[in-house]
Amino acid sequence: MPIDPLKESARRSLRDDRPLALIAGAGNLPIEAAVAISSRAKPRPLVALGFPGITSPDLEALVSSMHWLELGQLSALAAALRESKADRVLLLGKVSKSLLLSGEVGFSPDDEARSLLARHRDRSDDGLLALIACWLEEQGFELLDQGVALRSMLASAGPMTRLEPSEQARADFSCGWPIVTALGSCGAGQCVVMKEGAVLAVEALEGTDETIRRAGRLGGPGATVIKALRMDQDRRLDLPAVGPDTIRVMLEAGATALAIEAGAALILDRERCLAEADAGGIAVWGFDAGRESP
Predict the structure, then answer these.
(1) Residue partners of 202: CB distance under 8 A and separation at least 6
(2) Which tens digit of pLDDT belongs to each residue from 128-152?
């Protein structure tokens, strides 16, 4: 089997002793990633770059050094990476696109960021992330594959809870899988919610949790949530992720099944996530993206 140069580079980088930098957005993913990387037999030094009001302060206790930056200060970000001697980077956690589009307080672009945004008008999720990735590479930093760096957190194939998906959940998945694939190819979200063959909600700027809540309001209980990698998505950027919070929102909305892409979706706090799904009667399974049905 031919060797994937990107994955092989990521594996080599995780074996050496150079510092690895986490550029950390919101949520628990940066924290769980820091724990997972630090728990390896030969952990490597970790540094983190975070943003006040977005990144959890709890991350600071898990890394050797923490740099706090204003969102949009690209020159300061590059300087912090060079100061930490980290030339390998993981992008983790969400940064709401609404900060960029609405001009909310908290986004303070410097000259470098304004110049970059002026040259590229694609404001899709993939477009913005690819823009940051290209900029980091231009600065001499290597962006790592999230799936390789966080392999232990990836969803496995098949049922992951005691409760297996019902025939209706499987049928809804079969209907929804082409839709979430098309959705991702348009640069939108990674999630669609189905019930009895009907599309209740698709993910846009609001994120997965609000998509599930909207589906619950529109269609009531019994829905299936499908979350998958975008078609041809760069695996260094924004892998789909679920966790205990996802399960709680599904319980709130009355959703009863969760289909996530095996080998591509990250599960945060896996043991607790699946235990809460079992307790709430939610079936969780990993599907093979090479097939059209689970």
Answers:
(1) 179, 180, 183, 188, 189, 191, 192, 193, 211
(2) 777 888 899 999 999 999 999 999 9
